[in-house]
Each structure stands twice: as C-alpha cells, then as structure tokens.
Amino acid sequence: MRAGFPDFRLGTVLATSFTATLTERCGDPVERIPVPRRLVDWLAVNGLGVDSCTAAQLDLAWELRESIHLAATAAATQDALPAPAVQVINDRSVEGRAAAILTPEGARRWRLGPASRVEDALSVIAADAVSILAGERDGKLALCASPTCRAAFFDTSQSRTRRWCEMNTCGNRQKKARFNARQREHSRSAE
Fold first, then answer.
1. Residue 17 class from Cβ within 10 Å (0-12 exposed, 13-18 middle, 19+ buried)?
2. Which of 40, 47, 77, 186 sits a CA distance of 20 to 30 A from 123?
3. Using the 8-state DSSP alphabet, how is residue 151 labeled?
4. Is the dihedral of CA 94, 66, 101, 48 positive or negative?
5. At 148, is the secondary structure helix, strand, or coil?
C-alpha cells in the first residue's frame, strides 16, 4: 500500500469490506480512502481495477459506502432500511457496466471492461450490497462489538455469533483491554 495511508482492511465480502474503508466510526475515525488515487488502489486490490478517479467519483464512492453502512446497520439491528440509503445503493447498482464471469474453479467474479470507470466498479459493490441486504447469501449482517468501531460485517460463521469485524484488530484490542483491567484489579486487590 502507499506510504502515509493506513492499510486496507480486507475481508471476503466486497460490500462490507468497502464500508471498512472508514473505521473507528464511533471513536477517532480513520479514513482509508481519503484521496481519489487511494480509491483506485482499493478497487485494484479487490479485483475492480480502474485507471483513474476524480474527486467527484470519490464523493460518489463515499456516498455509496455510507449508504451501505446505514442499510447494513439497520439490517443488523432489524430496523427498516433507510429509504435514502436504499435509493443510493440502487442508483449506483444500475449505473455501471460490469459482467459476472465464471472462473475455472466455479466461482463468480466480476469483470470490468478495458475502459472501465469508477462508476462501473461502484455498481459491482452496490450489487454485492443488494445481494447481502436482500438475504440472498448464507450469513447474517452484524455489528462489531467494539464500542469505537461498530462496523457492519457479514457473519458467515457456523453459529452466526461472531462479535468482531476483525479478530486481529477489534477483537484483540478488546481482549487486551479486558486483560489489562483484570491485571489492574488484581494489583489493587493484592495491595
């Protein structure tokens, strides 16, 4: 990744990985795609390579990201999906030109054309969000238990009881905080 920018959080679900380009939403937010070139980088890492991105296209991406986050949060808490967020997701979904292809391993992948634009890549992300929000995939939307994160993630664990968006970040941070609190309590008890 480019120096000076925080690393991307990459997951297996495109739409929720995209929402993870803004982390620590309830604490000190960390923007992982602050400039157009960084969006180009994120799209490339996720198999949706485009040549360039304008500031206006970055604004479209941020709007889509926040709309997916709002809708996923509502779905995870079993609230009604916010109509403005649904509208943005639907609008981005129909704007692009991408094709679903079948890999030799039998997996579906998206292919953008040689002259693809950011809007084409955003349509793939929006289509992925539609699939998740519509309940077409095996799993459930959940919110990270970290009080500073609260990221929406797609839980595909067998029990569907996963608590953290990422165990390596939020989960470990919370486990370390609990351990340190127990150590402090133990030290006070010993005095």
1. buried
2. 77
3. -
4. positive
5. coil
Q: Which pLDDT tens digit goes with each residue over 96-129?
A: 888 888 889 998 888 888 888 999 999 999 999 9
Q: In angstroms, what CA-CA distances link 88 with 91, 92, 125, 175?
A: 5, 6, 12, 37
Asked if 142 and 11 count as a contact pair (C-beta separation under 8 A), the reply is: no
Q: Which residues contact 39 (CB under 8 A, 6 or more apart)?
A: 33, 53, 57, 58, 61, 118
Distances (CA, A) of 177 to 1, 10, 139: 29, 24, 29
19-76 pLDDT tens trace:
999 988 888 899 999 999 999 999 999 989 999 999 999 999 999 999 999 999 999 9
Q: Is the pLDDT of residue 10 over 60?
A: yes
Neighbours of 45 (CB within 10 A): 13
Amino acid at 18: F
User: DSSP 3-state assignment of 171?
Assistant: helix
Residue type, 184: R
Structure tokens of 33? 């795609």
pTM: 0.83
Q: Where are the alpha helices (DSSP H) in the chain?
A: 14-19, 36-45, 55-76, 83-95, 118-133, 172-190
Phi-psi map region of 135: left, alpha, beta (phi>0 left; psi -120 to 50 alpha): left
- The confidence score (pLDDT) of residue 179 equals 63
Q: How far is CA 49 from the centre of its chain?
A: 17
